[in-house]
Amino acid sequence: MSNQSKDEQTIVNTNKPNADLIIEDLENYEHFHQLFVRKSTLGVGGDGVVYSYEHSPSKVLIAVKVPNDGSQKYRKRLISEIESFRNIGRHDHIVTMLTYSENHRPIGPAIFLDVCDLGDLASYHKQWYSQERANGRPEHPSEITVWKLLKDMSLGLNFIHNGHETRYVHNDVKPGNILVSRPQNWNEADGIPPEPIFKITDFARLTPFPTPPQGDTSGWMGTPEFAPPLREQAASMRPSADIWSLGATIQGFALHILPIQSKQAFLVSRKAKGKNIPDLLGDPWKLPHWRRRRPTVYRPLDASEEELKTQYDLPKVPREYEPYSSQLNAQYSALWRKDEHARITSEELVKQVVPMIDGIIATAKSRVEDSSKPSS
């Protein structure tokens, strides 16, 4: 769930003989206190704090999520998230809950998770940027990486939406809730991989679909910068909201921006409607009131730099910007259909798009291999 140095890269493999012993040490607080050493803070969110701990005997790293404080509010949220992890179960593109403890001290409960060695999506982007810049290559994510992100998230979301007797909505798909790992057998000397493994995490806002009569019908509960259209936010959440948020996440990853209306366009729009505008003398843009009012906006991935600036409300284009292919943009655009009933579903993505992505990646690899062969 955050970057680790090379000597800290061991994570739990639940097939190893010592895995059961490690899990016992996690569940027993006295053992945990004696055998685990806190290494770093991996992340701080609205519901809790995530730390990395090292199991001293085995050098295994574990991610530990605990409430922000000891209040009943945050305790209940983590108890709910534990139940969500249990309901969802295991999947290659969902972060694994190893176990949990309701008696963790000084603040509990605690959720124990696998560590993803490349951090979240933003951390992976930063590492990729640094690597490519140092090697004199274009800094933006490769097209293959964006395809791989779409593939892995399609598989993960389809499991959430359709893989159980009860269907679920994640309700907060965003870069911070997508963690990244190196593929098995990847040689660290080869740097940051262009085809890592992407996994969904943070199930604090998971909701069943359709919402049961006694369930929470308060609507959108996720991060405003990745929210679906306003009319969808007011209703009970549908799986289509996760698909829209995935589109916003991919835009942010590919173009290195927040996928929302620019400040300039927002002010012009508000003034034209005779509505109040933020106080420009302070820093009101971070307040929930204004964050909720700046909509996410579609921007194509295959547009030219000039088109993005003049037609798609992107005042600043990333360094060394290169348009992605129209083929990628066509699949990405399907995530952004404003009519939620016409928007592509995770099931359709898995059936129609994932096999196509496999073919695209295989073809790209073949071309690289052919180009590296000595000419006869």
Radius of gyration computed on alpha carbons = 22 Å
Q: What can be said about the biggest beta sheet?
A: 5 strands, antiparallel
CATH architecture of the largest domain: Orthogonal Bundle
| Elements, N to C (H/E) | HHEEEHEEHHEEEEHHHHHHH
Task: Give the structural class.
Answer: alpha+beta
Shape: globular
Number of strands: 9
CATH fold topology of the largest domain? Transferase(Phosphotransferase), domain 1
Spans of at least 5 consecutive residues whose pLDDT stays below 50 are 1-11
Number of helices: 12
As a percent range, the share of strand residues is 5-15%
GO cellular component, one term: cytoplasm
InterPro entries: Kinase-like_dom_sf, Prot_kinase_dom, Ser/Thr_kinase_AS, Ser_Thr_kinase
Keywords: Kinase, Transferase
Organism: Cucurbitaria berberidis CBS 394.84
Provide a compact summary of the structure.
This protein has 376 residues and is of the alpha+beta class. 38% of the residues lie in helices and 13% in strands. The chain has 2 domains: 6-113, Phosphorylase Kinase, domain 1; 121-260 and 295-363, Transferase(Phosphotransferase), domain 1, CATH 1.10.510.10.
Tell me about this structure.
There is one protein chain. By secondary structure, the protein is an alpha+beta fold. The chain has two domains: 6-113, Phosphorylase Kinase, domain 1; 121-260 and 295-363, Orthogonal Bundle (Transferase(Phosphotransferase), domain 1). Helices cover 38% and strands 13% of the residues. The protein contains twelve helices and nine strands. It has helices at 19-27, 29-35, 72-88, 121-134, 143-162, 230-233, 239-255, 263-272, 288-291, 305-311, 326-333, 346-372; strands spanning 36-44, 48-55, 60-67, 97-101, 110-113, 167-169, 178-181, 197-200, 207-209. A hairpin with an 8-residue loop joins β4 and β5 (110-113).
